[in-house]
Amino acid sequence: MKAPQDIDRTRMVILPEQEHGERLARVLKYMAKAGLESMLLCDNANKFYITGRIFDGYIYIGPDGRVSYFVRRPSILEGKSVHHIHKPENILEIIDREGLGRPSKLGLELMQTSYATVMRLAAALGVDSFGNADSVMLSARAVKTAYEIQQIAVCGMRHDRVYSRIPHLYHEGMSDVELQIEIERVTRLEGGLGIIRTVGQSMEINMGSVLAGRNADEPSPYDFALGGAGTSPALPVGADGTVLRAGMSVMVDTNGVFNGYMTDMTRTFAVGNLPQRAIDLHKLSCDICHTIEDMARPGVRCSDLCRKALDMAAKAGAPNLFMGHNSQASFVGHGLGIALNELPVISLKTDSILEVGNVLAIEPKFVIPDVGAVGIENTCAVTDDGPMRRLTNAPEELITLVS
Amino acid sequence: MKAPQDIDRTRMVILPEQEHGERLARVLKYMAKAGLESMLLCDNANKFYITGRIFDGYIYIGPDGRVSYFVRRPSILEGKSVHHIHKPENILEIIDREGLGRPSKLGLELMQTSYATVMRLAAALGVDSFGNADSVMLSARAVKTAYEIQQIAVCGMRHDRVYSRIPHLYHEGMSDVELQIEIERVTRLEGGLGIIRTVGQSMEINMGSVLAGRNADEPSPYDFALGGAGTSPALPVGADGTVLRAGMSVMVDTNGVFNGYMTDMTRTFAVGNLPQRAIDLHKLSCDICHTIEDMARPGVRCSDLCRKALDMAAKAGAPNLFMGHNSQASFVGHGLGIALNELPVISLKTDSILEVGNVLAIEPKFVIPDVGAVGIENTCAVTDDGPMRRLTNAPEELITLVS
Predict the structure, then answer these.
(1) CA distance A294 to chain B (A)
(2) What pTM value is reported for the model?
(3) In order along chain B (403 residues), what is the average pLDDT of each group of 10 residues?
(4) Nearest CA of chain B to the CA of A308: how many Å?
(5) Contacts for A96-103 with beta carbons within 8 Å, 24 or more apart?
């Protein structure tokens, strides 16, 4: 991985050439499967996937598989197949002039792009019907290349360093919000970018959440595994100002977005002594996580992973505490990479089958009324032979916070 | 403004009743202007505008002007006109059963909602044509109520406190990123929520930007007034790791999102002595800002404000440094409130005419090659008689950073 100052500011595609080619081949494979012959992409996550950078403009994959870049900003970008435009209405003229091939069976990002933008792009390209490029891109992105897994592993190492500092950030009398702010600061000092990309509109959060005491049982409108009331009805999720007191668990679930990729990791801390039930269920969360890490091999159904997790929680007599209590999540894990919620999803409803290179966050958590949440979350990659490769390696046991 | 712990967790509409009514009246007025008889809203900013909270679900305004809430989560929400649903396909049945009036001339959020979601909602409501609810809502939100201006004023006071601490956060040898992280921390400790809502897809940023030295002249793909290379091609905006050195200006442009509303404020700091040109242009930025604050009265054209700013920059012989140098922004100010980029926009191209209650961030900035950016930004409200009411009141002069 190059340091930012070594990256060519003007080169359109800053991924290594082979990596760029490998990703394009994946995209073309899923285009063919979906019956799309061309695509016009404008979602930042997809632009980052194909080029390694964010720019203002569009990526066009023509009917012959050739890729072109239509760039609004920055104007310094150059390279093979780069065309500068003011607006999308300029694209078709360039396609014709350069012989790039008019779009046929065009895919547009129907899940990530606004209705108004999709209609404008379709009109600009002269098409009146189009398919879903988001399905293609999410399928392609669900199986990570070796290079991508390495990027995520780098996030994991930095994320581990952040977690190793958490016990040192605590002091007696601190609130969950104050602890979260110190964790955010350390994450940023480790190089965290401070934003989290997501698919769809059901998630808003700062860099993660800290849940302590009763707040762990507060429902949230967002699609996260657990909730929390937050500090404002304008952002009802996560820490709510609870002062950390003996007998509370403190669950820290943050995203480590350091290089455009990310890890998702949860660890649980204890203030003073926790009830035995909390200690037992924390251990059970670790057991479920490790069981799934071992089971999750190529060819395995995601629904079977979810069923196994639910079975283990039920056998321990805690089905009503698993993945929430007042409000329960319907999944125990999710794909991630450039976005927090990529494919596949570990739920009973999904029919996905694991492939080598899937990267999953596995988060079997329990909510214990009045105590808080316990459990862990690891980000892991499906390998070709054997258990998953764990990319988040902070110690998993309950750590007691002492000031 | 109530403290979060005093807010009723279960009440759907937590705005004061009169405020809720005033906002709805504004929305109905712009619906009538746009020829829409009903609307279905799902954008979080719009839900927050109408209810004062974020929830997972939809707001339906029926043909008779009655408002209904279709809620997926949290399940604890209750109140008049609250209906719990699992999916949008449940809505029409409830509309019929409760006699809420089937949608006619329906508005959907075509700019803020994905193509796939718009098509799903249209099908669920049994309509095959629809209008643009985003135009309606952005027009309604462009003119703030007295209550909203008070919320923004509260943000301004907290934002001022953050800026008063900036000189104390600096130490010699610090990088722009390190300074930014300490400013973020202080913003969060003052109650900053850590996220910024925006309209459209052209903005990604953490809580703001710090620009120092040459980095102020680096172009960015995003629609911000100035750029900056950022620390990663995955988020190319703002601070890039420049070590702060004598002779550099340090422009701090952050968003104060404390309660769902926000202020936008920029102040410039100096490390050591700056060249006279930088000092002069900083003063000119203050003069332009104050001139616009004085001119911006009801009935004034936004394009005239922009022209005035450009004239003042040109008269000082600095048109090529105004609003950027390598890459120049086309606006000198923008509406804001719940989102960072609301209406109206102060640019030559806009035909908006100011109204009492518009809230604008005015940001006449200069980039001085090799030195950095200078200038200020204030968030101000248009009043009914006299100059704008300034809601950001941190000292405007260049402040020298000393460790």
Answers:
(1) 32
(2) 0.97
(3) 66 97 98 98 98 98 97 92 98 97 97 97 97 98 98 98 98 98 98 95 91 95 92 97 98 98 98 97 98 98 97 95 88 97 96 97 97 98 97 98 91
(4) 26
(5) A98/A68, A100/A60, A100/A62, A100/A66, A100/A68, A101/A38, A101/A62, A101/A63, A101/A64, A101/A66, A102/A63, A102/A126, A103/A37, A103/A38, A103/A40, A103/A60, A103/A62, A103/A63, A103/A127
